[in-house]
Amino acid sequence: MKPAVILLVDDNRMDIELVLLAMAGLEVTYNVQTAHSGYEALDYLFGRSKFANRNQFPLPDIILLDLKMPGLDGYEVLHRIKTTPGLKRLPVIIFTSSQEDRDRANCYDSGANSYVVKPLLLEELQTIMKQIETYWLDLNVGPPKMS
After folding, report:
1. What is the mean pLDDT of the chain?
2. What share of residues in the chain are helix, strand, coil (percent, to 5)?
3. Quick one: DSSP state of residue 134?
């Protein structure tokens, strides 16, 4: 069985490295793909540009999406995902430093499946990544894939 694919979308390279470090401690190995901007995330999801090879860049099983990115932000990426027939069923976990009620409300109103505030400590991040793994990749029975 192929490992689950996680698309991590974040403009902060340090945050990406911390998530990858936290995931390295999990019992299961995942195919973690990264996008460093909203534009790159959409290129990946639509199979454009350097992401055209679906064998190398398969659609993700879950998306970890930062909100506050320059250019095309996480809100717009979320909107595009949830309004595109071939993508709208993909689980999107907002993974942000924002604790604002308004941000949470906007994300859920736009179809986010979950909202997680980035922790400050690596140990907390490891706990969160384990919980994401347990729920989203082990327990959750997602919708059927769209054709």
Report:
1. 92
2. 40, 15, 45
3. I
Q: Residue 145 falls within a domain, yes or no?
A: no
For residue 102, the enclosing domain spans 5-139
CA dihedral 2, 8, 9, 15 (to 10 degrees): -160
7: β partners? 33, 63
Tell me, what CATH number does 127's domain have? 3.40.50.2300
| 3-class secondary-structure state, position 55 | coil
Helix 101-109 and helix 74-82: axis angle, to 10°? Answer: 20
Residue 138 vs residues 62, 113, 130: alpha-carbon distances, Å: 12, 16, 11
pLDDT-derived band at 143 (thresholds 50, 70, 90) equals confident
33 phi/psi in degrees, rounded to 5 = -105, 145
- Count the neighbouring beta carbons within 10 Å of the beta carbon of residue 131: 11
